[in-house]
Amino acid sequence: MIFLIIQALVISFVLYLVGKFIVLPKLRMQFYRNQNIKEYNFFPFYGWFWDSILQKTNKHKDCIHQIKHISESADFKDQDIILSNLNSKASLLIVNPDLISEFLQCQQHYIKYELPFHSLNKLIGTGLAKHYGDGWKKSRKILSNMFTFEQIALQLGSIRELSKRYISQQNEKSFNIQKVFEMTAGASDLSIFLGFDMDEYKNKDGKTLGELIGSFANDVYLRDVGMFSMIFGTKATELGLRKSDKDLNERGKNLRKFMYEIILECKKREQQPGYQPKYPSFIHHLVQENLLNTEEELEDLLAISFNLFLAAKETTSKIAANVVYYAIKYPEQYKKIQEEIKTYVPNDDYTFADLQKMNILQANVKECLRYDTSGPFLFQREVVQDHTLGKYNIKKGTLVNCGYVVNFFNEKYFENPFSYQPERWLDSNNDSKMKNSHLVYIPFSGGARNCIGQHLAVMQIKAMAIEFFKQFKLPEIPKDFDTEKIMTLSYGFKNDLLLNLERI
Ligand code: HEM
């Protein structure tokens, strides 16, 4: 009898899995196939994210190799939208730039798909990047004042100082470029948001807030996109039935507590009579404007800072590390950037205006944001209301994303797209070609929900890279460096690039 019950339970579970993860998504995809949207692939659970979410790399050692190469395929090169699945839902990747533009302008029909960020939202709070509706408008309005050109330019001094400090104090014989830039970007982000020096506060294990946020966010994200959460739902992980879930939930609570205490300390310091920070931070503005009094305002600041930090640190440091990596790989770029540094920013007190004169560096940053962008996709959007996009009917419950990374590798927009050519950004013909192709080159997305930190990011990338080029002679890339690229919270090299450097 017991055997029969177990058998029935197993069969029901298998039927449930087949129904939810094969039959249902296939039926939902049929709605789009009927509109002549071609199916790119179908994999139970992950669809085209199979490689990226599972961090699997193919023989090309690049988890988004297939997606980058879609426009080379005769079947897909003229497609507006590409069809796949994610979880039990149909998933659309919009490639046509006019449709991308329309999509970015009708965000009222979407929310950000909760699943990958469920635990982060639950444990830390939603913050700007995940908010929508009125909550988003309110946060974006407050933050916009912090991200104007003038405000960003005021932060350059702090970024210059921190870049110099962190780069100078490393062992040059084993210089881990990604880690150093992560530390630098993390420290300057915390200084910009909360006005404190990252090394000032460490937890009982000697870890800085930056280190704790980075590792916690990655672990919790990978758990939420893992098979267990897909099958049993994120609520099951919340209950902490597995030891790993219990530990991770506990880590989240401790991190939140640690960050809250730091915010209270920072607030106290800002309120001291006569306190005038060297570089006015986000918290400084909030205190000045009397916007940091209630428990709710403190909670909001915690969630926003956490979010900004996550959105900023990895994406920015990965591009800065790529700028250096490609300049080493193509030494003529290294030399040209060093010459540009001698001409425009020979001393440590350069300004935002000086940075803007550096065309070669700018071209390298732009090319890295095309060739190896750290944010190749948006957060998935989930449709909340049936609507049309161009000639297509889009159904509630579908997941939608932007395929701008597909366009970055399309011959139609970029000559020799698979070769690293910063010069393309110095060629005025190319520039006008870009201008005529609306919303093709959008590494920071577009529309109202574009990246609020894009100008800050570019300034940070340049300042960190400048400090590196100023301090070191052209090194070699180690022969055994494995260039495998994977997707965690952002996209980039899987392995540490350890450089043996010689100071100038
Ligand atoms: C190279 C570095 C960066 C890249 C490639 C990048 C890319 C992006 C992209 C593609 C989006 C759109 C996401 C979506 O709609 O789903 C975005 C949004 C966002 N980014 Fe960035 N970003 C970078 C650096 C930064 C920095 C430095 C900050 C903050 C200081 C930041 C803060 C944000 C925030 C808060 C949002 C959400 C905006 C909103 O929803 O209103 N990012 N970023």
UniProtKB/TrEMBL annotation:
Similarity-based family: Belongs to the cytochrome P450 family.
GO molecular function per UniProt: heme binding; iron ion binding; monooxygenase activity; oxidoreductase activity, acting on paired donors, with incorporation or reduction of molecular oxygen
Keywords noted in UniProt: Heme, Iron, Membrane, Metal-binding, Monooxygenase, Oxidoreductase, Transmembrane, Transmembrane helix
TM region(s), chain numbering: 6-24
Key word Lipid metabolism present: no
InterPro entries given in the database record: Cyt_P450, Cyt_P450_CS, Cyt_P450_E_grp-I, Cyt_P450_sf, Cytochrome_P450_Monoox
Record-given protein name: Cytochrome P450 family monooxygenase
Entry-linked PROSITE patterns: CYTOCHROME_P450
UniProt key word Membrane: yes
SUPFAM superfamilies, alphabetized: Cytochrome P450 (SSF48264)
Binding-site list for heme: 451
Organism: Tetrahymena thermophila (strain SB210)
Cofactor(s) required, per the database record: heme
